Amino acid sequence: MTVVWDLRNQKPLTSFSDSNRRKCSVLQWNPDMSTQLIVASDDDSSPSLRVWDVRKTISPVREFVGHSKGVIAMSWCPYDSSFLLTCSKDNRTICWDTVSGEIISELPASANWNFDLHWYRKIPGVIAASSFDGKIGIYNLEFSGIYAAGDAVGAPARQRAPVPKWLKCSTGASFGFGGKLVSFHPVAPTQGAQASTSEVHVHNLVIEQSLVSRSAEFEDAILNGDKSSLRALCEKKSQESLSDEERETWGFLMIMFEDGDFVRTKLLAHLGFEPPQAPPASSPDELSQTLADTLNLDHATITDYADAQFLTDNGDDFFNNPQPSEASLAEDLVSTNGQQTEQEMSGDVVPSDPSIDKSIQHALVVGDYKGAVNQCLSANRIADALVIAHAGGSALWESTRNHYLKNSISPYLKVVSAMVGNDLMSFVSTWPLSSWKETLALLCTFAQKEEWHVLCDTLASRLLNIGDTLAATLCYICAGNIDKAVEIWSRTLKSEDGGKIYVDLLQDLMEKTITLALATGHKRFSSSLSKLVENYAELLASQGLLKTAMEYLKLLGSDEHSNELAILRDRIACSILSFFPYLCLTFRCCLHVNEVFIYLNLVY
């Protein structure tokens, strides 16, 4: 029999006993329910534990069955009354769930029985057990097994243990993937509820507002892919740019969206060179009128004067005063001009070596044009050599012309040499970089379509080697080399250029990168560029822009460049498919609110 005493009045308050009237070996009061206690016996024939309520002692409230021999000791957890430790003569130490009556954990068996158990007061979940072999074992309840001794290896696991009170938090929050914030807090229990309830909420969390707004604006601008809208976007970005470099870059990007060969015409104008305008075709009547106006000829006056002269009879004057005829006047004029010209030539012409003149003349007489040209070149008579070579055929003319251009020191003749010799690569490789705009203008005018990209890329490489990054970037834009252009742009990410933070610099970089990719039709990215797009997509996903982030990842194609990219792609895809239907839901749960919260944090 078990008797409960009233110590103030020093008399029994109540008593109870079970049906088989077994003796009580150990007793523990419930730390949360002042009217309940648990009683156990060391009798091997009745090893169960029974929970009694002193207000109703007719029968026990609950009975725990698990030991095969008598119970020696027990200890109720002071932090959570749902945990109860017992040890018995069957060498088992069991942790019970007093709410469900199930075994939730079992300590490892020792060489001899445990006869005393205690919970550590300072660290919840730590247990001390004393055994008859003279040893004290220290255990942590969190690392103990969930199978009872004697269970088969393939036996199903017992019911999951409830979360201990010392691990529960009344309020908490955690960040999730896709710009989500999961939070939970307690709510007032409903009438008749035995346990407290909590609510779990999932919130959209946006930290970088400027990134979200700029990304949405840029996405709307490039949505249709129309060239006119893209040119308008580049023009707007150029006007909004704070630096000359950005303004020039967006200006070149705008030109890249022009139609066909009109790109080069616009590029020439942007570089400050105006192409020649074809003169308008004039009609024959307009030409005649222009000639008449220029000469100021009055045909009517001349005709009238001639008629009046011959209608008048002035024969006496004619014979008495004879005048020189027009023919004799013309002869005298030619004779005078000839003498004057001969005097002028004799005064200006430098005397030449008669032997050289004779040898050149001899070569011409026999038709040896090549020999005559060589004689002229040896005597440094370049003009004579060119004239004679023109009469000697196209091959002799080209060789003589190339010899002249090669030895010429005039800068503009170097341009002529590149044009007539169709050797633009040598010109690009040797022309001074201080005149890179003239070089690019020459390429716009004379470069063939198939060599345009190579020539621009060569010029950009030379400019990059001397540190002129702006000019190199512009030439890389013309060449359509998106990887090199992005490599130069990426250097601004390492420093806060113009007082901008990393997020704004990355947004600027991606806008220029995607714009250049649309202008060139570039569809294959290098590993470094793919990593940059991956970082940008991850940043967008962290602000909740999952669909936009996935669109950027689609630009990289199906070939995975890294495991991180594959993981990011899968996380975004799973979040888009499974998370959006639950954005506005409120989760209600009882007792296991932390388990639901941890589950949400792991999944999302």
Automatic annotation (TrEMBL):
Disordered: region residues: 332-353
Signal sequence, renumbered to the chain: none
Top-rank lineage group of the source organism: Eukaryota
Family to which this protein belongs: Belongs to the WD repeat SEC31 family.
Annotated localization: Endoplasmic reticulum
One Gene Ontology CC term in the entry: endoplasmic reticulum
Pfam families: TPR_Sec16
Keyword hit for Nucleotide-binding: no
Protein name, entry field: Protein transport protein SEC31 homolog B
SUPFAM superfamilies xrefs: WD40 repeat-like
Main localization, broad class: endoplasmic reticulum
Bias-annotated ranges (Polar residues): 334-344
Keyword hit for Repeat: yes
